[in-house]
Design brief:
alpha/beta
Length: about 200
């Protein structure tokens, strides 16, 4: 699998060509999004990581080429408090405009930190994705930070807080332990296969 950075888009008009299936990655700004993207793409330097959340401010496109070709799109993190209300609202509008576009994205990874009960912003995003009937998988991050015996309790809190449908995939990931990549790839393949097959 070959991966490369394509562009940072400030708006929908700046999205790259050619049009390919897009898998958006969305989550709170401190949920480990960039680290997971780097692990998934197999390159530590592609997505910018920082101890200070809120560094992703554009739509960052990464091209994945292998048996299938698709984009991974890193969206700005939501819920980051240490910027102006105007800037937070601009990020929110960009995220919602991107996810509302009828031609893209194909599906969404919604990232949630296993250590924390989902926030109100997490609930809002989950509800919004379901309302628009976008294919969605929950990628649970930082599993290495929680003892395995406590996973089920934390996962139950996520499912119950977000009122997830039973068929919603829950993918356990850890960039530090290098876990979850094959499961994410498997879900991408399943979504691409379903899209190629068309309506049942």
């Amino acid at each position: 699998m070959r991966v490369s950075f394509v562009t940072s888009a400030a708006g929908l008009a700046d999205r790259p060509q050619p049009r390919l299936p897009e898998f958006a990655v969305v989550g709170r700004s401190n949920c480990g999004k960039s680290s997971l993207i780097n692990y998934f793409l197999g390159s530590a330097g592609l997505a910018r990581t920082s101890r200070q959340p809120g560094k992703t401010r554009l739509l960052n496109y990464y091209l994945v080429e292998g048996p299938r070709r698709f984009y991974i799109v890193d969206l700005p993190g939501y819920g980051y408090a240490k910027v102006s209300q105007k800037e937070r609202e601009a990020w929110r509008r960009l995220i919602l405009a991107f996810l509302s576009a009828e031609d893209r994205p194909l599906a969404v990874f919604h990232l949630l930190d296993l250590r924390h009960v989902p926030s109100e912003q997490d609930r809002e995003m989950s509800w919004w994705l379901r309302e628009r009937k976008l294919p969605m998988a929950i990628a649970v991050t930082k599993t290495d930070k929680v003892g395995r015996p406590r996973w089920s309790t934390h996962l139950r809190a996520i499912v119950e807080t977000l009122e997830l449908l039973p068929q919603t995939p829950l993918i356990l990931t850890s960039a530090a332990k290098r876990e979850g990549r094959q499961e994410m790839l498997g879900w991408i393949e399943a979504v691409l296969d379903a899209a190629a097959a068309g309506p049942a």
